[in-house]
Design goal:
CATH class of the largest domain in chain B: Mainly Beta
Oligomer: heterodimer
Distance between the termini of chain B: 33 Å
CATH architecture of the largest domain in chain B: Beta Barrel
Order of helices and strands of chain B: EEHEEHEHHEEEEEEEEH
Structural class of chain B: alpha+beta
Strand order of the largest sheet of chain B: 1-2-4-3
Number of strands of chain A: 23
Strand order of the largest sheet of chain A: 7-6-9-4-1-14-11
Number of helices of chain B: 5
Structural class of chain A: mainly beta
Distance between the termini of chain A: 53 Å
Number of domains of chain B: 2
Shape of chain B: globular
Helix content of chain A: under 10%
Number of strands of chain B: 13
Order of helices and strands of chain A: EEHEEEEEEEEEEEEEHEEEEEEEHE
Number of domains of chain A: 2
CATH topology of the largest domain in chain B: Cyclophilin
Strand content of chain A: 35-45%
């Protein structure tokens, strides 16, 4: 029988959101694709608690929340290693964890990566504030995207009582590196860029700037020899696209990027690498190769 | 149409690179033909002024076979490629204060009177070229040449939902509160995003749109009707 568990957020963390299947198929209305930034980690978390692969999970960014759980449930924590704790004792990632009513889930030091995923065995309760399979929410008649979970708010779940305890062999945090090289394919406007611009794109190491979020990652260094001629008639943009402003600022577009943009697209990151890009944080290093 | 790979799971189809009614009609016709073909491998489409981005699942199809399939849709005269029905929406707009913010600047830029600006705006049949920038934001064109205006030098930090703006030869309505640089000349009481209704988004690409000037008191009445669920939505679909 389905029972309920309530997650009460004593602390919200830096940027905690609920991410479901996303909004694929609604891009002609201008809706971003959305969904978990690191899809693989989110899927593993759902697998560990017996959920469908695209069930809504908590996406926790760099600094974790403090959650008091009312009601028994099973959870799993994957993605970035943020030193998760259950009742103030370290708890392992990548396996199913049984939670007793009244327990506290908290996080500590960020050891690797940027985004942690927490899945709860069962379904988030239908309510007006959260929609189950989309990354936007309706609140006070405003459409709010990836609405940040606020301090003292709560989420309720219909828990699945028959979740079996599982363990996932691959410990992904070990794969997260603060220096990565990703493969790209040339973007639609590749040929509009000067040789020097392309050379600085491929030869240089780039750093993720502080202006980086679910919409996009701005890179800190500017590309050389970029100019106004590279502006285009606004056209579709998709996650993984690297667009460059006329002043040479490169931006990697992520899940919540707008669907239309007018900057030249120098390259697209091969989609396999996007989960690892999602685990980069400001200050981390990225380089590109064909 | 020029097809090219866009990343490893999308196709970019470029039409003549211009902002024109003729080209945009082709983009939307192809978008609609693809939508009605309901190809399993296609995950989403992004129609823009003169391009169509098609996202697909590479495990279900290949780039080449999908390009071929899309080309066959575009040449198949029996498909919905040509005769997609166009809706006309009649959107009430109050061009008065406190909703109109930039008439002074516009009068200076265009050398027109406020009445002339409103007359031009309400007597033009607009078309939704594309949605983007933010969910539900429709880029509509074209403004009559005399209404051409520049964006504001400093974008506003907060524009109220429903605000109607002009930029270049485009007009558009902000679906929800956001920063923005368009010249604001009025506001509609109709919500552009309405998840309660089946019509989540008011506009879709290819819609025809007319604006009707309303008074402050009608604005408040419609706003009231909408929030109390008494608004007759049929009244805007002309």
């Amino acid at each position: 029988m389905a029972k309920e568990a309530i997650f009460y957020f004593e602390k919200a963390g830096l940027y905690t959101t609920l991410q479901g299947a996303g909004n694929k198929g609604q891009q002609h209305f201008g809706l971003p694709i959305g969904g978990p930034m690191d899809q693989t980690s989110a899927k593993i978390a759902n697998w560990l608690v017996g959920n469908e692969a695209q069930a809504a999970v908590l996406e926790i960014t760099m600094m974790g929340p403090e959650i008091i759980v009312k009601g028994d449930c099973k959870i799993a924590i994957t993605g970035a290693d943020m030193s998760p704790k259950l009742n103030d004792k370290p708890v392992s990632m990548y396996n199913t964890i049984a939670i007793k009513s009244g327990s506290k889930i908290s996080f500590g030091r960020l050891n690797s990566g940027c985004r942690t995923y927490l899945a709860i065995g069962g379904k988030i309760s239908e309510n007006k504030l959260w929609s189950n399979n989309v990354s936007y929410a309706l609140n006070n008649d405003n459409f709010v995207f990836n609405k940040k979970i606020e301090q003292n708010s709560s989420l309720s779940f219909k828990t699945n009582g028959s979740v079996e305890i599982k363990n996932h062999v691959e410990k992904r945090p070990l794969l997260f590196n603060n220096k990565i090289d990703v493969r790209v394919v040339p973007g639609p406007e590749y040929n509009l860029f000067s040789k020097q611009a392309i050379k600085s794109f491929f030869d240089n190491k780039h750093y993720i700037s502080n202006q980086s979020d679910r919409i996009g990652y701005r890179l800190r260094e500017t590309l050389k020899h970029c100019n106004q001629n590279q502006e285009i008639i606004s056209s579709g943009i998709i996650p993984g696209t690297i667009q460059v402003t006329s002043s040479g600022k490169a931006i990697i577009l992520m899940n919540d990027a707008p669907t239309i943009g007018g900057y030249a697209r120098i390259a697209n990151i091969i989609s396999t690498y996007m989960d690892n890009v999602a685990q980069l944080k400001p200050g981390d290093q990225i380089s590109f190769s064909i | 149409m020029v097809f090219s790979p866009y990343g490893d799971k999308a196709i970019l189809i470029n039409f003549v690179q211009e902002i024109s009614l003729e080209t945009n009609k082709k983009v939307i016709a192809l978008n609609n033909a693809i939508a009605s073909a309901q190809l399993k491998a296609i995950e989403y489409c992004i129609p823009a002024y003169c391009s169509l981005t098609v996202g697909y699942n590479p495990l279900l199809t290949s780039y080449n076979s999908l390009c071929k399939k899309i080309k066959s849709l575009s040449t198949n005269r029996n498909s919905n490629y040509k005769g997609t029905s166009e809706r006309t929406l009649n959107i009430p707009v109050c061009y008065e204060e406190p909703y109109a913010l930039d008439f002074d600047e516009l009068i200076e830029q265009t050398n027109l009177t406020k009445k002339e600006i409103i007359d031009y705006h309400t007597s033009t049949n607009f078309r939704v070229y594309m949605l983007g920038f933010m969910p539900g934001f429709a880029y509509m064109g074209k403004l009559p040449q005399p209404l051409y205006c520049n964006r504001k030098k400093e974008p506003r930090l907060n524009i109220a939902p429903g605000s109607l703006g002009l930029a270049g030869l485009q007009t558009g309505i902000y679906p929800f509160e956001s920063p923005g640089g368009w010249q604001i000349i009025g506001r509609t009481p109709i919500p552009l995003i309405n998840p309660e209704e089946n019509k989540t988004f008011l506009f879709k690409p290819g819609d025809l749109v007319c604006f009707n000037a309303i008074s402050n008191s009608s604005f408040l009445k419609i706003q009231n009707d909408v929030s109390s669920n008494h608004f007759n939505w049929e009244s805007i679909y002309g």
